[in-house]
Amino acid sequence: xxxxxxxxxxxxxxxxxxxxxxxxxxxxxxxxxxxxxxxxxxxxxxxxxxxxxxxxxxxxxxxxxxxxxxxxxxxxxxxxxxxxxxxxxxxxxxxxxxxxxxxxxxxxxxxxxxxxxxxxxxxxxxxxxxxxxxxxxxxxxxxxxxxxxxxxxxxxxxxxx
Length: 161
Hints:
Layout: H1 5-50, H2 54-81, H3 91-101, H4 105-133, H5 136-160
Helix pairs in contact: 1-2, 1-3, 1-4, 2-5, 4-5
């Protein structure tokens, strides 16, 4: 067996270093995406039980359905690249849950729609960035989820007005 020599070893080390940086970025995106899905599922369930209007309750059901599917897809990708599956919620969502659990009626509906607009704008920005800068399966995942996130934003904006 021949050795690659110093130049070959340097190229190999450089390639491994680049792959590791890409993987770290992809891992971070996936962890955040799964935490986001966990959060949206929980908030959707709260909307189904505490929402005053049928539209808010329906939106909550949509969030639960869509983000359950998105989480399953993200978990499949995460398993392929060796990412631990987070079970926690995003920190800011814990704060929002506390606020929503103290509200009822129309006040709940207004706050829920307002938060969903803000949250989905941030999500779309993160997924657009990953769709462009991500690699392989994570970029593909981001691209497939963007239309669903846009649908959620459009729904939240309609409900917020």
